[in-house]
Design brief:
alpha/beta; Rossmann fold; Histone, subunit A; 14 helices; 6 strands
């Protein structure tokens, strides 16, 4: 009996040992499985986190590219003149940016008088969430509306316009002062996440706003002497004198623009070098897209004639009469504006009214040729033909 009992105990001990070992093996397997699962979960989470980071970075870069270069859309996808990307704005796609790297470029619309710059500027402003900055030297003057084809408040269609009606007609124009004001406006627009659209046919003013121009100082004694000479011999003779010392500057300045002729001669005398040398290379201080509007010469001449006739019908003569009471005739700059100078001669009895209108047409055509010559020298301007799809082509160019 004792042997049987001992044998049974040994069997029991063996069984218990086997059970313990089995339990230990099972526990070890379970622990290993749990550890493997935990490791897999951690790895999956790390992969998900990496993917999320990549997606966030991609979205950030996409938004940045969108702000800097606008949405890249095919011209055929653009809407009409008044719609274009306005639909995107209505759907909540208007962007606001807060870093210098994400500020929008400046869009400059240039070209001759009557080419259609104002109409295009409105279409682009609606499309690009932009504001217009005036670069027409005569639209800076208060009350000079009809003769400069200044858009009325209603015609602006809610688009904000800067640098209109800022000077009285008695104030002499200052390009350096305009430069300061224009850059203030452009910087403000860009820092609000909007697109500045610089519009005008005054070439020097466009460059003053966008390029690295520094204007030479002045000397009152020299300026007074040259001004007295201008009053004595006239702008034609002074222009001839300028052509002998700086033909490039003379080619860019109208013979009737005595103020600019005097300034050019003053700079030459003070600096000892040509006035044209004060204009630097074509290098912008902003990222910029420049678009020039070209119109065939016969059509442009026709547009000018129609425009002048329309101004007369709208009451240009009455506008000049009113401005004359505000000192227009004594304004060194404003009194020489196209249309205004001719009407002043009519009011003084020098010309008949019809002759004043015809002289305005002729003077504007001459001025347009000089405008074209000025802007054609700028290699940064991309020229687009005027036409019903001009806004579409302009948008395609801007999106490149």
């Amino acid at each position: 009996m004792r042997g049987i009992r001992a044998s049974g105990l040994r069997v029991e001990v063996v069984v218990r040992a086997v059970v313990v070992r089995v339990v230990l093996v099972v526990v070890i397997i379970i622990v290993e499985v749990v550890l493997v699962v935990v490791v897999l979960v951690i790895e999956v989470e790390l992969v998900v986190l990496f993917v999320e980071l990549v997606v966030v970075e991609f979205v950030f870069l996409a938004r940045r590219v969108e702000v800097i270069g606008f949405r890249h859309r095919s011209p055929k996808d653009l809407g009409g003149l008044s719609n274009d990307l306005a639909t995107s704005r209505a759907q909540g796609h208007t962007l606001r940016c807060h870093t210098e790297a994400m500020l929008r470029p400046v869009i400059a619309l240039v070209g001759p008088t009557a080419a259609g710059k104002s109409e295009l500027s409105l279409a682009l402003a609606r499309t690009l969430d932009g504001e217009v900055v005036n670069a027409d030297s005569m639209q800076l003057y208060q009350g000079m509306d009809i003769g400069t084809a200044k858009l009325t408040v209603a015609e602006r269609g809610g688009i904000t316009h800067h640098l209109l009606d800022i000077w009285p007609v008695t104030q002499a124009a200052s390009v350096s002062e305009y430069q300061r004001l224009a850059r203030q406006a452009i910087d403000d627009i860009r820092h609000r996440g909007l697109t500045p659209i610089l519009v005008g046919g005054s070439g020097l003013y466009v460059r003053a706003a966008t390029d690295n121009l520094e204007f030479p100082g002045t000397d009152l004694a020299v300026r007074t002497r040259l001004q007295a000479e201008l009053d004595l011999v006239g702008s034609g003779a002074m222009h001839t004198r300028l052509a002998t010392v700086d033909p490039i500057a003379a080619a860019a300045i109208l013979p009737g623009n005595g103020r600019r002729i005097v300034r050019a001669l003053e700079v030459i005398e003070l600096s000892g070098r040509p006035f044209s040398a004060t204009l630097p290379e074509y290098q912008s201080v902003y990222p910029i897209k420049q678009i020039g509007i070209e119109v065939p010469r016969p059509e442009l001449d026709h547009r000018i004639a129609e425009r002048v006739r329309r101004m007369w019908d709208m009451g240009l003569v009455d506008e000049v009469r009113l401005l004359e009471q505000c000192g227009l005739r004594n304004g060194r700059t404003a009194s020489r504006a196209l249309g205004y100078a001719q009407v002043l001669k009519f009011l003084a009895g020098d010309w008949a009214e019809e002759e004043a209108a015809e002289q305005t047409i002729l003077a504007t055509r001459r001025f347009v040729r000089r405008q074209e010559s000025w802007f054609r020298r700028d290699p940064r301007v991309t020229w687009l033909s005027a036409g019903p799809d001009l806004a579409h082509r302009a948008m395609a160019l801007i999106a490149e």
